[in-house]
Amino acid sequence: MLTFLRGAVQPVTVNRTRDIVQKRNSSIYSKPAKSKIGPGQSFFIMSVFAVALLAPAGWILHHIPEYRQRAKPPPS
């Protein structure tokens, strides 16, 4: 079985994947922020993000009784 696995991974394939990963990593770079954001902006963005995440869950939880009262579809 080991000879089968040894033949499946060829050195050319390994080198090709290594080159692809190196090319991808070389295109990732970071710089310091151009302008700093204040605590008010941070709070606003975090609150918008929280509302965006929690509003759908709150809607579903609020309407659970209505979902339970719906008639179940007949089995096909």
Automatic annotation (TrEMBL):
Ranges in coiled-coil conformation: none
Compartments it resides in: Mitochondrion inner membrane
Family to which the UniProt record says this protein belongs: Belongs to the cytochrome c oxidase VIII family.
Ranges annotated as spanning the membrane: 43-62
InterPro entries: Cyt_c_oxidase_su8, Cyt_c_oxidase_su8_sf
Membrane topology type: Single-pass membrane protein
Signal peptide (residue range): none
PANTHER family listed in its UniProt record: CYTOCHROME C OXIDASE POLYPEPTIDE VIII, CYTOCHROME C OXIDASE SUBUNIT 8A, MITOCHONDRIAL-LIKE
Record protein name field: Si:dkey-85n7.8
Domain of life: Eukaryota
Principal subcellular localisation of the protein: mitochondrion
GO cellular component entries: mitochondrial inner membrane; respiratory chain complex IV
Pathway terms, separated by semicolons: Energy metabolism; oxidative phosphorylation
Record Gene3D superfamilies: Cytochrome c oxidase, subunit 8 (4.10.81.10)
UniProt keyword annotations, A-Z: Membrane, Mitochondrion, Mitochondrion inner membrane, Transit peptide, Transmembrane, Transmembrane helix
Gene Ontology BP term (one): mitochondrial electron transport, cytochrome c to oxygen
Organism: Sinocyclocheilus grahami (Dianchi golden-line fish)
